Amino acid sequence: MRLSAGTVCYGMYANAKSGNQGSIFRDGVVEGWDLHPGGGPDEEEDSPEDVLTAYIHSGHPVAHACAYAGLRPADARAVFGPPDAWVSLPERDYRAA
Fold it and tell me: Which helix (H) or strand (E) holds 53?
């Protein structure tokens, strides 16, 4: 939540057992949890903009997360790899306020 102060964060966990799981934070507040990025739209619950984003990025969870957070990568490496670098965050409880 601290990473989203003044901005939007979309966290994604690639779970091999149950599929991709996502969460959205805006200005330190949880907006969405247990989401399925790249899994297609939910026409009953999503806004028209979210339906379009989900449809365009269906099957591409990293692209979906980037688009939702407003990121526009210069090329496809952020979505299809390989990564330029791996960065480790310092050990601490990031869920604590």
Answer: helix 48-56
pLDDT tens digits for the chain (97 residues)? 577 888 888 999 988 888 899 999 999 899 888 888 888 788 788 888 888 888 898 888 888 888 888 888 888 887 778 888 888 888 888 777 5
Select from 30, 36, 37 the least CA-distant residue to 95. 30
Ramachandran sector of residue 90 (left: φ over 0; alpha: ψ -120 to 50; beta: rest): beta
Q: Structure pTM?
A: 0.70
